[in-house]
Amino acid sequence: DDDDDIPQLSSHALAALQEFYLEQQQREGMKTSQGFNQYSVGSIEEDWQLSQFWYSDETASCLANEAVVAAGKGGRIACVSAPSVYQKLKEQDDKDFSVCILEYDRRFSVYGEEFIFYDYNHPLNLPENVLPHSFDIVIADPPYLSEECLQKTAETIKYLTKGKILLCTGAIMEEQAAKHLGVKICKFIPKHSRNLANEFRCYANYASGLD
């Protein structure tokens, strides 16, 4: 029989696969039936291979509100590798501010002109229309807990910001964050939708509402 050479899934594996596809279909169905909000946190799922871990809804809201206050009326906000904050900002888009998202993951290009492709390995490789010191606040969450990643992301942050910086990264990066960006640790403890092994903290270089 020619079919003998075709690998067969065990009944258990097949049932698990069918359950996965069913859950996926249900999720897609829910998105459609609920008048799906493309800006809700989690609307684009985490890709762990890209070291993506979304904030909890409460943390994303808190950071977004802080960014709005810090930017001021008519302010410009840049979210560098911090898409869940961007999404929360877009949920309150009736307020007087503008926002851009700088991301390596091209799935976020669904957000149109506000999406800027960004690779931290090339920190100043930005479109010509992204002018230096053109954002009132930059909120950044470097994807990796390494000094190299932080140092390169810091180049981008310093190019973009008029002065204010809000950084989210591991507690172990406190010394490097101070060295490269002059930021100090805040009392506010950010949380993720899935618990991370590393302790995570926020840092700012101005008197923020996160203390």
UniProtKB/TrEMBL annotation:
Keyword Glycosyltransferase: no
Any one GO molecular-function label of the UniProt entry: protein-lysine N-methyltransferase activity
Main localization, broad class: cytoplasm
Annotated gene: Eef1akmt1
PROSITE patterns linked to this entry: N6_MTASE
Annotated protein name in UniProt: EFMT1 methyltransferase
Catalytic activity, as annotated: L-lysyl-[protein] + 3 S-adenosyl-L-methionine = N(6),N(6),N(6)-trimethyl-L-lysyl-[protein] + 3 S-adenosyl-L-homocysteine + 3 H(+)
Lineage start: Eukaryota, Metazoa, Chordata, Craniata, Vertebrata
Keywords (A to Z) from UniProt: Cytoplasm, Methyltransferase, Transferase
Superkingdom of origin: Eukaryota
InterPro entries recorded: DNA_methylase_N6_adenine_CS (IPR002052), Efm5/EEF1AKMT1 (IPR019369), Mlase_EEF1AKMT1/ZCCHC4 (IPR041370)
GO cellular component, one term: cytoplasm
Source species of the chain: Psophia crepitans
Pfam families: N6-adenineMlase
Location(s), subcellular: Cytoplasm
Record GO biological process: methylation
